[in-house]
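Progress against Task 2.4 (sequence-to-structure conversion) is shown through the following example record, which the project officer requested during the mid-term review.
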Amino acid sequence: QVQLVESGGGLVQAGGSLRLSCASTAHLRSVVAMGWYRQAPGNQRELVARIDSGGRQDYGDSVKGRFTISRDTATGTVYLQMNSLKPEDTAVYFCKAHRAPLPDYWGQGTQVTVSS
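Structure tokens generated for the chain above:
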């Protein structure tokens, strides 16, 4: 079964940077976009950033200007560069493959903790 595998999470001080990666264990068909979402304890899962097959990017309001989503078209790996991290960025970050008309895929998540 195909899996999305996230990596790059960890503990960082406020103001620091991390880069998350999301790789698929096999080719996924019908992917129209790849996204990063996050979920903090007690909160709903929210969009962080998304990049579609044409390269268009969308960002959540709270991360605009600090986070950048990109993809390696050769390998299919998707990255999330996170700069100027804040304690409120602490969450589990999930990778999602948006597919149409097939079901979406989610990764298992990677923990990001930002200390003040």
